[in-house]
From TrEMBL, chain A:
Gene3D superfamilies tied to this protein: P-loop containing nucleotide triphosphate hydrolases
Domain of life: Bacteria
UniProt source species: Candidatus Rhodobacter oscarellae
Protein name, entry field: Ribose ABC transport system, ATP-binding protein RbsA
GO molecular function terms noted in the UniProt entry: ATP binding; ATP hydrolysis activity
Domain ABC transporter, chain residue ranges per copy: 6-244, 254-496
Alphabetized InterPro entries for the sequence: AAA+_ATPase (IPR003593), ABC_carbohydrate_import_ATPase (IPR050107), ABC_transporter-like_ATP-bd (IPR003439), ABC_transporter-like_CS (IPR017871), P-loop_NTPase (IPR027417)
UniProt keywords, alphabetically: ATP-binding, Cell membrane, Membrane, Nucleotide-binding, Repeat, Sugar transport, Translocase, Transport
TrEMBL record, chain B:
Record-given protein name: Ribose ABC transport system, permease protein RbsC
Native species: Candidatus Rhodobacter oscarellae
Subcellular compartments: Cell membrane
Annotated PANTHER family: ABC TRANSPORTER PERMEASE PROTEIN YPHD-RELATED, ABC TRANSPORTER PERMEASE PROTEIN YPHD-RELATED-RELATED
Domain of life, per lineage: Bacteria
Pfam families: BPD_transp_2
Length: 502, 338
């Protein structure tokens, strides 16, 4: 590999007490695609934000071709030759304008004269478009284009500045297969021109297609670097998901009666059939990478979306909820992932946050009984060990782990038939994770429990049974006793048994 | 918590109430005749209709919405009640019921536009405002409604405002002093208590606050977000039509030019309410206090011979101070719900 374009040494970044980057060492060679993998909360986006000048590092240094580089804002980074295409593509284009104006957007402020010459803009834009082989008419309004073309335009505009480092943050997350192919062709051409590319993705198919090197990130550190002729994909996934010997022992219990049954449920049109059963007094962990269908499955279980095919039963009766309210009435509770946007009511105190789904059960003639709310809350605060002054504290005064305890406590405070927890350990410290996990296991004999997890340790700490989801299909099932991790990891990363020779 | 922090917290919590108390004291000494039951009732009466509208808009603010159409709903209700009695010669009961139904219906349409058609709240209710301002003029060809007016077909309107209807706007109950408290003030207090109980004590109100704070999380907790949002706009429509009815009853005619200031005054009262008790969020008690605050200030200044044209300036000043209280001092605005 050629020259090192970007060299990162000992980069650290913390938000308050929360250490997000704990000394990142990373090099980006010119003319190569470095894929960065990492689970939610590993610190990928923080790393990108430091590189493109949105955040400033607390310690460590970045050098570009040997010169020290510490951008104070995104403009600095841009001028220095680091160009980022963010995940949400509409940040990169102005949809109301035509392609030509979009391609020339960065140059408009620097143009001379008061009036614009549309012809000159189009001429320049056409040059860029041809250089990048965009194949769209520069007079088309961007709003008329598909996601892929918009993405190409954002990249093309960035390329017009001849960047040295191009960062692509999950660029294929909203692209179809053929659209992604066009993007890859573009990336191939850019690689040939000697640009250092940092590509963030979880899709194994993408990674196989374009990666020259893979870097795995975990808990704010680089946990593995893989390069060479034959890339070790499984090693990369293992490094990303991590597995430290966990200190929590799980005694796999006996299964009770079946509670939830999925019969041939397809998460999207033409998707694979999912058939599974969750039993009473059993904790089922469903593991899978981002985009493996975990969130879609959780949404189906809670009535937020309807499955494309198949049927579900709950305690033997047909179960096809049309809304969250109906799911709750039927006795299915779900603690959604990403508590900040899906869980926490920021204006409420702990008591109201914990009881919000069950106001009806805490009120008489519609009048809320603060005493009843309080009693339910204090019980949960005690059992889960929420660290707070009182149950009347504002939720935002709590730490992330304690907020998450309140979110989980919300759904544990009332009995249910099926408890679904979507990534309950996201952004939670190890102690909170143990507390929550222990309580879920301790009370699991009263219901069936399904936990969607991002990391293997979490599944090993909490589950009786581990199911693996890949590309919306169930590809593995393991009893949580003396698990052989190799096939589990292989299933998660989507390699068939035949490939591995198992 | 150190002393500076304590003083600051105290100021945020009670500052506005203390300011109100201080104003009352000041005017009692400075303005001849300010202190007294009649004067106090006059303040209440001057803010009753605005206050009722403000309580309705508070409900829409609670669900993180906004209703710009309240002023025009009130004037439509004013015109409609007059039209029903004077032109259609209906009874007071029919007129009042028709206005309330109209208010609820407008609220329903606003809610559906916002929830189902995904029109942003400000735009939907702005559109509705224009539509109603125009609509209320069509049946009378742009003229005010009064007994004896000439109708578009050349005949004369024979109906009259019934005594029962006028009672709503003009009757005064005897409380210690004869003819003291007017009906609109009673209705203002009644609506205020109802909305306060609904928002603060019932689970429906609490869920509306949850929706305003984090809509997605509330939906995932099983709240009927669509229903509550539409309900908020319907409450706002009904309270606005009540305001219009009381205005009609006070004026005794369907005056096309009345109620111009209703929207701005009531929105200001609701926003001033954010600062009361350091709530930093829409709340019924604050809204009522906000309306009274403006009323006291204007009454006091008027009695001290401040010219009428300074009134809007004063209201604007109060609003800006209240908003600074809410957002800068308490620091709650910054964490911004979402």
């Amino acid at each position: 590999m050629s020259e090192i374009a970007c060299d990162i040494k000992g980069l650290r970044k913390a938000f308050g007490p929360n250490q997000v980057l704990r000394g990142i060492n990373l090099t980006l060679p010119s003319g190569a695609v470095t894929v960065l993998m990492g689970a939610n909360g590993a610190g990928k986006s923080t790393l990108v934000k430091v590189l493109c000048g949105i955040h400033q590092a607390d310690a460590g240094e970045v050098s570009l071709f040997g010169t020290r580089f510490a951008p104070a804002n995104p403009r600095d980074a841009f001028r220095a030759g680091i160009v980022t295409v963010h995940q949400s593509i509409n940040d990169g284009v102005a949809p109301e304008l035509d392609v030509a104006s979009n391609l020339m957007l960065d140059r408009l402020p620097a143009m001379s004269g008061f009036f614009l010459s549309d012809r000159a803009i189009r001429r320049e834009a056409r040059k860029i478009a041809e250089g990048m082989q965009l194949g769209v008419d520069v007079r088309t309004p961007v709003s008329a284009l598909g996601v892929a073309d918009r993405q190409m335009i954002a990249i093309a505009r960035a390329m017009a500045h001849e960047p040295k480092v191009l960062i692509l943050d999950e660029p294929t997350s909203s692209l179809s297969a053929s659209e992604a192919d066009r993007l890859f062709a573009l990336i191939d051409r850019l690689r040939d021109t000697g640009v250092a590319i940092l590509y963030i993705s979880h899709r194994m198919s993408d990674i196989r297609r374009i990666a020259d090197r893979i870097v795995s990130m975990r808990d704010g550190e680089i946990s593995g670097t893989f390069e060479g002729e034959a890339l070790d994909y499984e090693g990369a996934v293992t490094a990303m998901l991590g597995h430290r010997m966990t200190e929590v022992d799980v005694n796999v219990g006996a299964q009770g009666a079946p509670v939830l049954q999925l019969n041939g449920v397809a998460l999207s049109e033409g998707g694979a059939d999912l058939t599974l059963t969750a039993h009473r007094s059993e904790v089922v962990a469903i593991a899978g990478l981002l985009g493996s269908g975990k969130t879609k499955l959780a949404a189906v279980l809670f009535g937020l979306t309807q499955p494309a095919a198949g049927a579900m039963t709950l305690d033997g009766a047909a179960y096809a909820p049309r809304s969250a309210a109906e799911a709750i009435r039927r006795g299915v509770h779900m603690c959604p992932k990403d508590r900040a946007s899906n869980g926490v009511i920021p204006d409420f105190d702990i008591t109201n946050n914990l009881t919000v789904p069950f106001f009806a059960r805490h009120s008489a003639l519609s009048m809320l009984s603060r005493r009843r709310q309080r009693r339910a809350t204090e019980a949960m605060v005690d059992t889960l060990g929420v660290v707070c002054q009182s149950a009347a504290d504002d939720i935002l005064t709590l730490s992330g782990g304690n907020q998450q305890k309140v979110m989980v406590g919300r759904w544990l405070s009332q009995p249910c038939k099926l408890l679904v927890l979507d990534e309950p350990f996201q952004g939670v410290d190890i102690q909170a994770r143990r507390d929550i996990g222990a309580h879920i296991r301790a009370t699991s004999d009263q219901r069936a429990t399904i936990v969607f997890v991002a990391e293997i340790d979490e599944a090993l700490e909490i589950a009786d049974r581990i199911l693996v989801l890949n590309e919306e299909a169930l590809v593995g099932e393991h009893r949580n006793e003396n698990i052989d991790l190799a096939p589990l990891m292989a299933q998660i990363s989507g390699q068939s048994a035949a490939q591995l020779g198992i | 918590m150190n002393d500076a922090q304590k003083i600051r917290d105290f100021a945020i919590r009670y500052g506005f109430l203390l300011l109100l108390f201080g104003l009352v004291l000041y005017f009692s000494f400075a303005a001849q005749g300010f202190a007294g039951a009649r004067s106090a009732v006059f303040v209440f009466q001057s803010v009753a209709i605005t206050g009722i509208l403000a309580l309705g808009v508070t409900c829409t603010l609670v669900v993180d919405g906004f209703d710009l159409s309240i002023g025009s709903v009130a004037t439509s209700s004013l015109m409609m009640s007059a039209y029903f009695m004077v032109v259609l010669e209906q009874s007071a009961v029919v007129a009042v019921l028709a206005c309330l139904v109209m208010g609820a219906f407008v609220g329903l349409i606003n809610g559906l536009l916002i929830v189902k058609m995904r029109v942003p709240d400000l735009l939907a209710t702005l559109g509705m405002m224009f539509l109603l301002i125009g609509l209320q003029r069509i049946p009378t060809e742009g003229r005010s409604v009064a007994t004896g007016m000439t109708l578009p077909d050349g005949s004369t309107a024979e109906g009259t405002f019934s005594a029962g209807f006028l009672w709503l706007g003009r009757h005064r109950f005897d409380v210690f002093i004869e003819n003291l408290i007017p009906v609109p003030v009673i209705i203002f207090i009644l609506v205020g208590v109802l909305i306060w109980v609904f928002l603060e004590l019932t689970r429906h109100g609490r869920l509306m606050y949850a929706i305003g704070s984090n809509e997605r999380a509330s939906a995932l907790a099983g709240a009927n977000v669509t229903g509550y949002k539409v309900a908020a706009y319907m409450i706002s429509g009904v309270t606005a039509s009540i305001g219009g009815i009381l205005l009609a009853a006070r004026l005794g005619r369907g005056d096309i030019a009345s109620g111009n200031n209703l929207l701005l005054d009531s929105v200001a009262a609701a926003l001033i309410g954010f600062a009361v008790l350091g709530a930093a969020k829409p709340n019924a008690f604050g809204t009522a206090i906000g309306a009274l605050f403006v009323g006291v200030l204007l009454q006091g200044l008027t009695m001290m011979n401040a010219p009428y044209y300074t009134q809007d300036f004063v209201k604007g000043g109060v609003l800006v101070v209240a908003l600074v209280f809410t957002f800068a001092l308490s620091g709650r605005g910054r964490r911004g719900g979402h």
